[in-house]
Amino acid sequence: MLVNGNAHKVGAHIDTDAIIPARFLVTTDTKVLGSNCMEGLEPGWVKRVHQNDIMVAGENFGCGSSREHAPIAILGAGIPVVVAKSFARIFYRNGFNMGLVLLEVGNDIDKFSDGDKLEVDTEAGSIKNFTTGETIICAKVPPFMQELLDAGGLVPYVRKRLAEKKQ
Amino acid sequence: MSHTLAEKILQAHTDEEISGAGQIVNCRLSLVLANDITAPLAIKSFKAMGAAGVFDRDKVALVCDHFTPNKDIASAEQVKVVREFAREAGVTHYYEGGNVGVEHALLPELGLVGPGDVVIGADSHTCTYGGLGAFATGMGSTDIAGGMALGETWFKVPPTIRVAFEGKLEPFVGAKDLILRLIGRIGVSGALYRALEFCGSVIDDLSIEGRMTMANMAIEAGGKVGLFPADEKTLAYCRAAGRTGDKPLKADAGAVYEQDLTLSISGMSPQVACPHLPENVRGVDELGDLVVDQAVIGSCTNGRIEDLRVAASILKGRKVAKGVRCIVLPATPKIWRQAMDEGLFSIFMDAGAVVGPPTCGPCLGGHMGILAGGERCISTTNRNFRGRMGSLESEVYLASPAVAAASAVTGVITNPAKL
Lengths: 167, 419
Ligand code: SF4
Description:
Chain A is of the alpha/beta class.
């Protein structure tokens, strides 16, 4: 998958309450959750986002609760990819399960600034920064996880796998 | 390639070649677990996946232990969903009523987990089975649904912190004190995303129950798993639980560790985690006079027979202090019967303690021992977050069964050696 968009930079240790505060957990609707994405960080944050923009975050992104609403809110905001220095463990799983692409780049995170124009190639594991002219290579999304993402998350992925097994 | 314990176990469950930490691998699962709180959500996802049935009826465990015997209508409805699903799907290992015990005490005892297994559970303390040498970890409900349908899931191979415990344990100091000491040292995110691998002479001498107590709290340091090698003691435990074919298991010589820690525990006093984080650990003698209103002895951390024996040895011939509620909850029906047959209940009741059924109960503020504002509890459980056992204004101190029992007797948090 090729994603072209602007970088939205956030800090380190962004927790799931920052991504989607508990008061919004009364729904599982992607759009509604998306319209409140990052409300716990900065009210109205999501207004700056255009479809296919990319979140760029510091270390331990998504720490805190295991709520699956967090990756759903990011997807609902129109952000298909998060690039971070590192991710919290349960968020990392939930992200892929919900169909959100997560790329870990370590210290290379400092090579991104807010507003940079990026192109992410999830298959190649590369991020082209058109603003700086630099390309950053990160670990590729493994083939079977790519399959998970292509299917649109864990629920559709398992549905597809089960159908294949039946044949 | 030399493997850590975590890598070695995962390697045996995947067709991919594990070359080190950070790699993502797809693994076959030995057991998938959910409880009365997390199973209903997992069942919802499972149905959305269009799964016709579980991957293996014998490898799914549904344990209704948190609010059971059902404390109210909502919890009864939750359990009903799980019960009906278990019946429909023909799940062999469904537990409720007289069969149920606290999941992480129950499954090892029934022989459902053993060395080299890969287990996922919709409960963060699934890591308990690391005490038997199983790679066992908690996940979200949708992951569990996927596991129930496919019998496999993906893991990112964790880097490992190896922790050696050396020295000699003082009387009344044991597994709980060791793990509290470690969490106090590295903090609640000290093992974030990592595997903990325990070793050293103290660990070799530890009982299987004690190892499970320690593995149970790996998550309180942020760890993904807390692993012990499987030795002769492990195999004897597994055989007694009716398992066959288990083999010893240890890390390869030359395996790569991210960090090596050694904790010298000679002269260490019993440890207590003060509110409101498991990392606020201090020696019991440093606490001053802290009056308690309640003492809880039970849970997946310390509700096993060994724990009850320790508590009974301290309560024997003594009385629980006036105004203190001492609540003893044997973690499983088997432990309950054993404690009864050994005469421990007479000791508890003579001392003025309450003996309850196997349940999570007060551990998560569910029922059977909820705290009022301003109350303080000494508890053998694993979490002391604000409001965990009731009112947001209450306090939970975490300690061993020996400290909890001694504190119940004196009414203040007490070093059992000083009774
Ligand atoms: S005893 Fe407490 S920590 Fe253990 S499974 Fe039950 S609620 Fe969770």
